[in-house]
């Protein structure tokens, strides 16, 4: 499994766009990039997954450059309820062990 | 409707008194995982089942055991809980093994050890 590195914490304000970058220099050819969100006292929740370029859903966008050594989760117009820990995971279909890194603690301020 | 249900949500036990946490799923997924999450830390994988095939992480203490009697249910047994086992225990499922695809988590069971 490729190791991931994310900022430990970030602050932003309501209504802003937030970008959280994850570094995964050792990503392998068949690896996908997946992001989860976790609120206090709840289990993580899947946000988005991608392999290359850009993926968008109703919650977020995921930008992956051509070399795939990093990825950026973009949350448009955040609200206070987006305060959570965001985890970036990298792995492929053969990886039985789905390992969470330290995550990024995002604080949204009014 | 909740798809992965964990019981109990909160469990208080005494040092050394066995505890069983349960997880049920309505998704008919092949894979079920147990994670341990301590305060301000990331979830740590304890073990997982692919169907009936049990896969233990190398650093999971022997004190932790698991059972999966059928597709829908999985149990985490802590034989002799210590103070260091106080944590949130998370159950998750996925349709197939591998890191591609979505993990579905339950709300977790918070264990307190007195």
Mind explaining what this structure looks like?
The complex is a heterodimer of chains A (110) and B (114). By secondary structure, chain A is mostly beta strands. Chain A is 0% helix and 47% strand. Chain A has strands at 9-13, 18-23, 32-38, 45-50, 53-56, 61-64, 70-75, 84-91, 104-109. In chain A, a hairpin with a 5-residue loop joins strand 6 (61-64) and strand 7. The model of chain A has no long low-confidence stretch (mean pLDDT 94). Chain B is an all-beta fold and 114 residues long. Chain B has strands at 4-7, 10-13, 19-25, 31-37, 44-50, 53-56, 64-67, 73-78, 87-94, 104-105, 109-113. In chain B, strands 2, 4, 5, 6, 9, 10 and 11 form a 7-stranded mixed beta sheet that branches. A 4-stranded antiparallel beta sheet of chain B has the order 1-3-8-7, with no helix packed on it. In chain B, a hairpin with a 2-residue loop joins strand 5 and strand 6 (53-56). The model of chain B has no long low-confidence stretch (mean pLDDT 94). The interface between A and B is medium-sized, with 28 and 31 residues.
Distance between the termini of chain A: 38 Å
Helix content of chain B: under 10%
Structural class of chain B: mainly beta
Principal-axes geometry of chain A comes out as globular
Count every helix of chain A, treating DSSP H or I runs of 4 or more residues as helices: 0
In terms of per-residue confidence, which ranges of chain A show pLDDT below 50 for 5 or more consecutive residues? none
Q: Report Rg of chain A.
A: 13 Å
User: Biggest sheet of chain B, in brief?
Assistant: 7 strands, mixed
Listing every helix as H and every strand as E from the N terminus to the C terminus, the arrangement of chain A reads EEEEEEEEE
**What strand order characterises the main sheet of chain A?**
1-9-8-3-4
Total number of β-strand segments of chain B?
A: 11
Instruction: Characterize the largest beta sheet of chain A: strand count, sense, and whether it forms a barrel.
Output: 5 strands, mixed
- The strand count of chain A comes to 9
The largest interface is:
A-B, 28 and 31 residues
Q: How much of the sequence of chain B is in beta strands?
A: over 45%
**Helix and strand element order of chain B:** EEEEEEEEEEE
